[in-house]
Amino acid sequence: MGSYSVVGKSIPNMDSLVKVTGGAVYTGDLKMPGLLIGKILRSPHAHARILNINTAKASKLPGVRRIITGKDTLGIKYGMWRVRPEFLDEEGLATEKVRYLGDAVAAVAAIDEDTALEALELIRVEYEPLPAVFTFEEAMKEGAPLVHEGFKSNVNVIRKIDIGDVEKGFKKCDYVREDTFHTQSVQHCPMETHVCVASYDPLGKLTLWDSTQSPYFVQVNLAATLGLRENDVRVIKGYVGGGFGNKVEFFSNEFCASLLAMKTGRPVRIEYTRREEFTVTRRRVPEIIKMKTGVKKDGTLVARESTILLDGGAYTGQVPTTTMLSGILGLFPYRIPNYRYLGQRVYTNNKPSGAMRGHGALQPNFASEVQLDLIAEELGIDPLDLRLKNAMQAGDGVPGIAPEITSCGLTECIKKLKESTHWRKKRKELPEGRGIGISCYAFTSGGIFNWFNTTLPFSEALVKLNNDGTVNLYTRAADIGQGVNTILIQMVAEDLGIRFEDVRIIAGDTETSTADLGAWSSRLTIHMGNAVRKAALDAKRQVFEIVGEKLGLRLHEELGARDGQIYIKERPDRAISFAEAVAAAQRAKDGMPIMGRGAYTPKGKGLVSSAWSFGAQAAEVEVNKETGVVRVLHLTTAHDCGTAINPRLVDGQLEGSAHMGLGQALSEDLMFQEGRVLNPSFRDYKLFTAPDMPEVKSIVVETYEPEGPFGAKEAGEGLTIPTGGAVANAMLHATGAAFKRLPITPEETFRALEKKAKKRRP
After folding, report:
1. How many angstroms from the chain centroid is the CA of residue 355?
2. I need a labelling partner for 526 at 20 to 30 A (CA). Which of 124, 366, 486, 750 fits?
3. CATH of residue 746
4. Helix or strand (DSSP H, E) at 225
5. Are 513 and 521 spatial neighbours (Cβ–Cβ below 8 Å)?
6. Same domain, 502 and 638
């Protein structure tokens, strides 16, 4: 890292000051003349046919400007998988049926919130209730009511993986273990709820200011559902108060605000309440995981079979991707030569599921890591040694998934964790009720999924050089708090040899920025980073060609750039400033601006990811056997992020992920009863809080990823994955009881201890 001047430095996040001083303008802060407030009427039934909607009384209420129902729409269905029409099953407003409690059936635009809410109460909807299904058993039973017509059953997605020969593999094993694991629904809980403001001008241009993780996905879905051309829609992403995967998809507030703006000719804002955030957005997919793993006596993994049921809820959304990822990430991060997977995504009349940080990985990782400790216990092997023995290495490949793992620091992560936590000593000497456990993980680093338009690059950037020494970077990358704008600026500054402060970024606007698919699957560091570097180097080449001639050089490769100077590498004293060089280049081009362009689409990287991140986590816990309360004392994570573009931001991601992971491991559970969310508030949904947090230690393990810009890869989503397994394994060490269900509440602890006690009784 010493050869870089900007990359590798812990530069503060570029928007930290404006956020902490209250200067950041979020979508909900927007004010404009004539702004109307929109509200959405939602179904009180989990499954019903819409017979009639009467809006006459509500329309007469003073202050109401417009009411829309499904009859006012084009009836065009949308979804994440536009390349698979059968997965386009959701409507901005239901036209014939509602499929979960909270489905949108009408929307109102009024002069203020109170009027809009009063109007909703005056709308009369006549329903014909239909039989509903809420559990896997109900939904998959022969003859079960269909959530969506057109399918033979409620299983609408099946994904399979078959590597090696699983049956022969199991026959070669000395020990085979089978377990069933359950993971829960989890809500994302961003501080800022879903909110948007739509405006439609007389020339036919629709503009939507939106709290979103993917301006492009919103743009495409709006155009499709409203009958507009793609570029008749402009989406502007401002500051986003958290997303964690829940703001990747397209929602009814975006559709309804836009249609109401078109109908009224006035701007319309629709902001979800906290209750709506809990009941009508997305949730982490609950899964039932049956896992069978076979090993040799020395702990060598030989074969695994994984069968997973996923409750996708009422609409398809992103869960086809989850279904595949849950299979793939039940294999990583270990060498398992024989592997078979069957994943079934099931329609139910529960609220829809979707992506959440560590998409598709947390659930199977929990199952795999807990089962590995149970295997290690049976074989009398240290669980850390078992993982070291089977850890993936750089150069490994997974047939049909990853042709080659081009960088992998998993072994180093495990070894550093062993040293940092004094693993051997604590495994032997911790007192009764105390335990330490380990969990390893891998995650995508630049997910290769393009559900919308295969003709566009995955990421594209434009770099414009100014003759005053400043640079403009244009990108559609969605910074949602993870700091991607900061690291992209660091990359540009490094490549051009200028100061961080001299780069201005214009981002998240479909009108002024170039192509990008959004902030999901930990893709922006690699995908947008590569595009940005190509654009910066393209602009640099143009300047070097002119400056080289000015300095009497034949080859512009003989030039270097650093500290705002362009110089001859062999004669550093012969230099001109960056600003002078840009001005000279512009004069040589008759005043034309110097513009660099760059794009990136992964090639030859398999079906899943441009690269893979790896890591290991250890949790030390204390279990009160009288109360069932678990206290996490220490949490240590070693993460392979490739090159750390900004070490401070990596540390921040590690600590934030620890908080999120602990909540999902110990307390968070979105509970349902016949489709109704029972705890739709921060009072009843048990988030992990600051006083609950243990001491957290971060260990950054740097490898070099050839596919990544400056050798970098992800440090965001993967870090949430291992915590459930680490805590469960620490509790196994502390109590001797196995924990196969999340969250591990005091009640769950009591059940596990009681089960263990019954086994001991004669």
Report:
1. 6
2. 366
3. 3.30.365.10
4. helix 215-226
5. no
6. no
Q: Is residue 687 located within the same domain as residue 562?
A: no
Given 573, 600, 627, the domain boundary residue is 600
Is the pLDDT confidence value at 208 over 70?
yes
Domain membership of residue 588 as a residue range: 458-600
Q: What is the pLDDT of residue 225?
A: 98
Could you tell me where the DSSP H helices lie in 551-689?
578-588, 647-666
**165 domain residue, yes or no:** no
What are the pLDDT digits (tens) for 659-685? 999 999 999 999 999 999 999 999 999
Q: Which of 740, 661, 755, 721 is nearest to 182 (CA)?
A: 740
Mean per-residue pLDDT for 260-276?
98
Q: Please tell me the number of Cα atoms within 13 Å of 573 on its side-chain side.
A: 0
- β pairing state of 206-210 and 155-163: unpaired
With contact defined as beta carbons under 8 Å apart, do 59 and 72 qualify? no
Strands (E) in 534-684, as ranges, are 559-562, 565-568, 571-577, 594-600, 612-623, 630-640, 672-673, 676-677
CA–CA separation, 372 vs 259, rounded Å? Answer: 52
Among 681, 477, 480, CA closest to 27 = 480
For residue 1, name the pLDDT band (cuts at 50, 70, 90): very low
Residue 371 lies in a domain: yes
Positive or negative: CA dihedral 135, 308, 621, 244: negative
AA identity, residue 632: V
Strand partners, 186: 284
Residue 556 has pLDDT above 90, yes or no: no
pLDDT digits (tens, 9 = 90+) for 325-345: 999 999 999 999 999 999 999
Same domain for 462 and 578? yes
Structural domain count, the chain = 3
pLDDT at 452 over 80: no
Q: Which residues pair with 183 in a beta bridge?
A: 287
- CATH at residue 122: 3.90.1170.50
564: left (phi over 0), alpha (psi -120 to 50) or beta: left
Contact (CB, 8 A) for 130 and 48: yes
pLDDT value of residue 571: 86
Residues 575 and 632 grouped into a single domain = no
Query: Per the domain annotation, does 559 fall within a domain?
Result: yes
Three-state SS for 54-122 is ECHHHHCCCCEEEEEEHHHCCCCCECCCCCCHHHCCECCCCCCEECCCCCEEEEEEECCHHHHHHHHHH
Q: Which of 154-158, 380-384, 484-488, 586-590 has the lowest mean pLDDT?
A: 586-590
Q: Which residues contact residue 297 at a Cβ distance below 8 angstroms, ignoring those fewer than 6 apart?
A: 174, 175, 379
Express each pLDDT in 288-337 by its tens digit. Answer: 999 999 999 999 999 999 999 999 999 999 999 999 999 999 999 999 99
State residue 552's pLDDT score: 72
Judge if 705 and 628 occupy the same domain. yes
Asked if residue 2 belongs to a domain, the reply is no
pTM over 0.90: yes
- Residue 133 region by backbone torsions, left for phi larger than 0, else alpha for psi between -120 and 50, else beta: beta
